[in-house]
Structure formats: structure tokens, C-alpha cells
Amino acid sequence: MLRGEGSLVGIFRLFVRKRMAVAAGCLAWQLVGCNSAIGVTPNIQVPANYRNWPPFIMNVDRATTSNPTVPPQIRDIYLNQAGTAVQEGEAFPDGTVFVMDVFGVQQDGSGNLQLDDNGHPMKDKLLKILLMGKELGWNAYRPALLSTGDWLYFAYQPDATTQITSGIDGCFDCHLTLSADVDWVFHYKDYFAARASAAVASP
Asked: Model pTM?
């Protein structure tokens, strides 16, 4: 073998493995315009049946917020089957996708929140749909200095087809307030607490 040939072979094999990983992500999640790490950023489309997925956490009350630019919200979050394989203390596996329905909150003419009989804010119309997906190597597509592992974030209008491309960096900013021990996922501990309770309640 010529001098340096072994290192070139190693580099080539690493390149092939990375391209195969990206290609696998394309097939798994209907990625649009998928290319190499220097090409087009992956894109997850809204799955047609996501509301039939296992719930991750429902009725997240964001009716009151310290940010005046964020309207009152209630959020329902669904987790695909791949994500349910995770065990407490682990990172979610590659192929995990979360889908979050973001609803407005019913208000009266004076802007007061409308509450149900249990004192909880009541959902209004769907405002947008947010997605959070993870595949091997997706960290290469994140904005500079905004690393939340291999997670990428996507947003759609309520029609589930019109993509929202502005403000996505804010998703990274928000999840960066978390850490790797919860895989940069909000409600991580709540999810496992609910899963443990459900297991105990099962006959």
C-alpha cells in the first residue's frame, strides 16, 4: 500500500457512512431536498396520522407567559413509535419525531381567559404545528452556536402543508435552556413519570 493510501481509504469510508446516514434519514422521514451536510437542510413534513400517535404530553398550559409577544397557548404533543423505545435516562433514538399542536386560548371580549368547569383554560383554534426531529448527523445542519444534539425544528401553518421558515432559530434558543441529560426535550421527566404511573395502573 502506498504511503497515505490507508488514510485516504479511511476518509472515503467515513464519507460514505455519513452519506448513507443522511440517505437513511431521507427515506425515513419524507425529507425534501435532502443532500450532504453542505447542501439543503433536511425537512420533515407533517405526518397525516400524527394525532393517532402515542401522546407525549397533552394540554400543556401556556395561557400565561412572561413574554408579551407570545399569545396564550395550549399545546398537545405527540411522539412517534420510534421515540417510545427510549428508556428513562437515555437520549431519544435516531428517527424520533415529536409533533406539537399549538392552540390559542378562548377569551372574552375583554381579553379574559375562558375557563372550563375545572378552572383550566379552554382551547381555541389551532395556531400552528411544530415538529422536532432527530437523525444521525443532523447536528451539521444547525445554525452556528445553536447545538441541541441532532435535533432539528420545523413549523407549519394549521393547514399542515404551508411551512413557516421564519423564527426557527427561536426553537434552538428555547431548547438550549435544557441540557443533554434530558436530551434537550421539554417535559422529559414528566413523560417518564406518567409512563411509570400508567405501568403501575395496568392490571
From this structure: 0.77
